[in-house]
Amino acid sequence: MKEKILQTIYDAFERWSAPIPRVCVKGCSACCTGSVMITALEGEAILRFILQEGLEGWFARCLEGKTPAPAPRLTTNEYAGLCLEGVEGDDPAGICKNSASCPFLEKNCCMIYPVRPFGCRCFASEQRCTPEEAAVLPGYYVAASTAMLQIIEHLGQREYWGNMVDVLLALCDAQRYGTITDCLQERGIIMQARFRTRKAVPLPGLMLLEEEHQRIAPLLSAIFTSRLDEHSIDDILNGRVHVLPHLSEKES
Ligand code: SF4
Ligand code: SF4
To answer: What is the pTM of this model?
Structure first.
C-alpha cells in the first residue's frame, strides 16, 4: 500500500510539473550530488531493484569508501514543525550539502534511474546549471517539491530518514538484503550509517505561502483524492482507515 501511495505522489507531481519549462536532459548531471535525502520506503525500492537486476557487487562498491555526508540534525518535517511554531532551526537542505558526486552516477547517467527517489525526481532548472550557478526554479515549484518531501516523510514515519547512502546502508542490515551485505568488505559501516540517520516524523503542516497555495492546490488535490483499495489517500494518510502495516509487522 505504501508503495502505491508513493507511486501516486511521483505520478501526480510529474503530471503537475509537466508544463513548467526546464532545460534538463539526459547526461546533464551537475545536480547529482551526495546531498539527496530519502525515506526507508524509497530506499527499499532501490534495494529491491538492485536484487532484481543482480547488481549486488556493483552496489556494495558504490556504498563503500565514500566520505560520509554530514548527519542531518532535523528531518524536513522536524524543520517544518519548528518553522510553523516560529522557532528558528537549521534547514536540513543547507546543513547536509555534500557536493561529492552521487555514487550511483556513471558516465553522467543514473544507474538506478527507474527507482530514483523523489529528491532526485524534483531536480530541475530553467537554465543549465554550472559549478558556479545553481538551479533556477520558480518559488512555487520549490514549495511544491518540499510539500511532496514532507508527505513522503509522513508516509515513512518512524522509519529511517537521512542521506541516501546512509539509509541504504542502514537497511542492508535486514536479512532479505543479505546478498548485498555479503559483498561489503567492512560491515561496520552499516552501524555507523545507522547512527547518522534520523527517524521520519509525521507532517506538522505544509510550509506554503498563501500565494503558492493556489498553484499547488491541484497537485495536492490530485494526491489526496486518489483512491487505493477503495480508500482515499487523504483518509489513509490521516489514519482514518488503518491499512498501513505497523513497522513491527514488517519482516526484519
Ligand atoms: S537540474 Fe541542472 S544539472 Fe540537473 S539536469 Fe537540470 S540543468 Fe542539468
Ligand atoms: S540517484 Fe541517480 S538521479 Fe539521484 S543523484 Fe544519484 S545519479 Fe542522480
So the answer is: 0.90
